[in-house]
Amino acid sequence: MPVPLLDVTREYKDLKDSIDSAIARVFEHGRFILGPEVKEFEQAVAEYSGTKYAVGVASGTDALLLSLRACGVKPGDEVITTPYTFFATVGVISRLGATPVFVDIEPDTYNIDPGKIEDAITEKTKAIIPVHLYGQMADMTRIMEIAGKYSVRVVEDAAQAIGSRHKGKRAGSIGDLGCFSFFPSKNLGGIGDGGMVVTNDEELAETVRTLRVHGSKPKYFHSIVGYNSRLDTLQAAVLLQKLPQLDRWHERRRANAVYYNKRFAGYPIVTPVEKEENYHIYNQYTIRVENRDELFSFLKERKIGCALYYPLPLHLQKCYEYLGYQEGDFPVAEEASRRTISIPIFPYLHKNEREEVAEAIIEFVKR
Ligand SMILES: *Cc1c(COP(=O)(O)O)cnc(C)c1O
After folding, report:
1. What is the pTM of this model?
2. Which domain covers residue 86, as residue numbers?
3. Is there a domain that residue 3 lies in?
4. Do residues 193 and 292 share a domain?
5. Is ligand 1 within 6 A of the CB of residue 181?
6. Are the CB atoms for 345 and 255 separated by under 8 Å?
7. pLDDT at position 46, please?
């Protein structure tokens, strides 16, 4: 039986009536750009995340880009981040003419290693972007201490971590700004692209709000050069129907994780580590095995959904050759990209499906 890595249609079937009528309401009022649902959804996300402000934007990538702009990142600045993340985290740094500076990750959580950040700080450092990878928050306690000591901004890449917690605080609420993505594969997924910036700082919120409408304030008067980057009313309308389900969905993902952890115990499979001070929302359930590429082909052949997040760390990408990094510079990230594989964990995964996934993997490692 084929098992999908993610099937977004199951979520839709569950909420069909409320989603269909929310979409119909948007067609009826016709306010497709920054309509009433956008503000309503911004307020709901701010409340959910425990922040004062939220600004809807066109994607998670733009949430990061506009946040860095709000922090004043400009050509010549340096921004510290992890080489083991989705490309967008780093792409936005170079798009602003700033230089990405990489720091290796922790071997257990795959998040940026706070113990290695201080060595990377220079006079040019403007910001740090910790990424809450796979749905578990980076060590924000130590990151905020370092940022405070050197007066640099912190932009949380919480694209995979909306609702995740570190010492009781939700993702996005600890740094200067937090960035969410509503790409369909995230825990809170839209029906296309979408993103949001959250913050407790009124001035930063206002700057992001201005940047998303070409930097115009008031309309047709531009003090800064901005972007066209709004969250669609249609996306907000759909996401408003899904947000109340999110905590329940996190719990289902966590139950799937508990199941896999039990099944894989005693086998040569490294299962995800959830730190005591964290609440992991398992956007991905990512294991580490010795013969990763063989397992990948084995699962593909069985039609069991799986993916490699991420097969080549960013310091070794062709487009970043100019930064001058070499293989061996970030051994933990390099090892992770050779050994990790993500398997189905989504909330609507059936019990017999997760059993099939576990059995296939155990069969593989026993060979
Ligand atoms: C998905 C993702 C992004 C980008 O979000 P988009 O909405 O696809 O632009 C950025 N960073 C990380 C870590 C992501 O997983």
Report:
1. 0.98
2. 8-104+111-244
3. no
4. no
5. yes
6. no
7. 98
Pocket lining: 60 vs ligand 1, CB cutoff 6 Å: yes
Question: Which of 209, 244, 279 marks a domain boundary?
Answer: 244
Tally of domains within the chain: 2
Q: Which of these three, 189, 210, 244, is where a domain ends?
A: 244
Give residue 60 CA to ligand 1 midpoint distance, Å: 5
- In this structure, the answer to whether residues 96 and 217 fall within a common structural domain is yes
156 C-alpha vs ligand 1 centroid, how far in Å?
12
How would residue 125 be classed by pLDDT, with cut points 50, 70 and 90?
Answer: very high
Contact 193 CB / ligand 1 (< 6 Å): yes
| Best of 111, 133, 157 for a ligand 1 pocket test (most atoms within 8 Å of beta carbon) | 157
Q: Which residues of 15-35 are buried (b: 16+ CB within 10 A; e: fewer)?
A: eeeebeebeeebeeeeeeebb
Q: Do 66 and 192 fall into the same domain?
A: yes
Question: Is the CB–ligand 1 distance for residue 131 below 6 Å?
Answer: yes
For every residue of 144-211, DSSP letters joined together read: HHHHHHHT-EEEEE-TT-TT-EETTEETTSSSSEEEEE--TTSSS--SS--EEEEES-HHHHHHHHHH
- Containing 102, the helix (H) or strand (E) segment is strand 99-102
- Mean pLDDT over 38-47 rounds to 98
